[in-house]
């Protein structure tokens, strides 16, 4: 039963929009449901989506250079905590209102932190589904 619930949650995240269909070809699933922001060069930017491979933030693309490597800290609001995940990323795309970053290779600690975020989301959704 728990496996069925988990697969339903994963499928709900991948709505069948043109963007979601494109995501099937991605190496990592893009997550849009987590509450998070990114701290870059001392400024907070809303995160539009993220995955184990990178993130897309709402920002003026003119403030960044393509291929530039930058220290970023993703801040996630979990049920009972705030998790900071500092890492290094490279600018891969930029537009007038967004910037996409590719994470440099992840350490085991960063992978664990990202997995903690995903696990918290799944646990929260499961708890919500049990409320009558």
Structure report:
The protein has a six-stranded antiparallel β-barrel. It starts with a helix and ends with a helix. It has three helices and six strands. It has helices at 2-13, 18-23, 108-130; strands spanning 36-40, 43-51, 54-58, 69-77, 82-94, 98-103. It is elongated, with a radius of gyration of 15 Å. It is an alpha+beta fold and 132 residues long.
Question: What labels would you give this structure?
Answer:
single chain, 132 residues, 6-stranded antiparallel barrel, 3 helices, 31% helix, elongated
Biggest sheet, strands in spatial order? Answer: 1-2-3-6-5-4
| Average pLDDT reading | 84
How many individual β-strands? 6
Largest sheet: 6 strands, antiparallel, barrel
Helix count? Answer: 3
Coarse shape: elongated
- For the terminal residues, how far apart are their CA atoms? 18 Å
Portion of residues in beta strands equals 35-45%
Q: Provide the succession of SSEs.
A: HHEEEEEEH
**SS-based class:** alpha+beta
Q: Please give the share of residues in helix.
A: 25-40%
What low-confidence regions span 5 or more consecutive residues with pLDDT below 50?
12-23
Radius of gyration equals 15 Å
């Amino acid at each position: 039963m728990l496996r069925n619930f988990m697969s339903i949650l994963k499928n709900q995240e991948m709505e069948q929009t043109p963007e979601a269909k494109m995501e099937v070809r991605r190496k990592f699933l893009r997550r849009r449901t987590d509450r998070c922001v990114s701290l870059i060069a001392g400024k907070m930017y809303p995160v539009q989506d993220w995955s184990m491979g990178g993130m897309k933030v709402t920002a003026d693309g003119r403030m960044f250079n393509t291929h530039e490597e930058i220290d970023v800290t993703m801040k996630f609001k979990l049920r009972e905590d705030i998790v900071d995940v500092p890492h290094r990323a490279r600018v891969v795309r930029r537009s007038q209102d967004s910037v996409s970053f590719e994470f440099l290779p992840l350490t085991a600690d960063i992978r664990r932190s990202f997995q903690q975020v995903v696990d918290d989301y799944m646990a929260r959704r499961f708890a919500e589904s049990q409320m009558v």
